[in-house]
Amino acid sequence: MEVCSYQTLTAYKETKHGMYLQDDEGEEVLLPSKYVPDGLKVDDKIEVFIYYDSQDREIATTQKPIISPYGFAYLDCVDVAPFGAFMNWGLDRDLLIPNAEQAHPLTVGQSYLTYLFVDEQERITGTTHVDRCFSNEDFDLKIGDQVDLLVYQFTDMGVKVVIDDMYTGLLYRDQVQSPLRHGDRTKGYISKIRDENKLDVSLHRFGYNKVIDNKDRILQALHNAGGFLPLHDKSEPDKIKHHLQISKKIFKKAIGGLYKDKKIRIEPEGIYLIK
After folding, report:
1. Domain identity same for 219 and 267
2. Residue 60 and residue 45: Cα distance in Å, rounded?
3. Mean of the per-residue pLDDT values for the chain?
4. Which of 117, 141, 108, 113 is nearest to 128 (CA)?
């Protein structure tokens, strides 16, 4: 029974300590009483997470960690010991990051980007040496694919992000239309695959689809504003970004499409929704 994983198991024996569960090979694990949901009966199927209790015995829980197995998340440091730091990962037993797995000494009360894995001694652990945990050597991503992004580092060039819980990429500074913070999660799109499988991402779709997305954004803003926005193709870029969180170039393309579609009219004072 694989630890640090979700398993769908069968309830097969109820005891005073809880419900024992079995997998298809007949291996057993205890689901302690406090995690047994009301109405669970023998032969019922249940999804659980497998990890170790305080005595390093395999155990099941219906709690779900806030970090995916072999994935990344920001975790809060809740305690520090001579041998390592303990992180809140959403389960009753905290996650240990040994000293050797800390890129820098961790401080109680601070959050750190953490990678969750099982080490060579079969111990569930975490590391903040995240740069060595990305798997950019092998992927099937292509330009235009939608991906999940996790913000983790700011550089002079832009924002470093975790892509789909596996890869690392760069969101260039001029692509960021609204403030981002460490730990923010958002959707994005693969914009370029550079040498050595380095990935660039954008927060917007490309080409025609990108214009369609922003046409919808402008229409929604017009609806919310009662049918008028004090914006046009001569407006200052900062004013457009303030109202719509898009660049002036994208705005001009989008309103051109809306005008051709007869969804808006453009006047010297701004754009009007045609009802």
Report:
1. yes
2. 13
3. 90
4. 113
Q: Are the CB atoms for 167 and 198 separated by under 8 Å?
A: no
Residue 20 lies in a domain: yes
pTM for the whole structure: 0.71
The rounded distance, in Å, linking the Cα atoms of 27 and 194 is: 46
User: What b/e sequence results for 68-100 when a residue is b if at least 16 CB atoms lie within 10 Å of its CB, and e otherwise?
Assistant: ebebbbbbbbeebeeebbbbebbeeebbbbeee
pLDDT at 211: 63
Q: What is the pLDDT of residue 212?
A: 62
Q: Does residue 174 or residue 53 have the better pLDDT? A: 53
Residue 22 belongs to some domain of the structure: yes
User: What residue numbers bound the domain in which 217 lies?
Assistant: 207-273
Give the number of domains in the chain: 4
Asked whether residue 47 carries a pLDDT value surpassing 80, the answer given is: yes
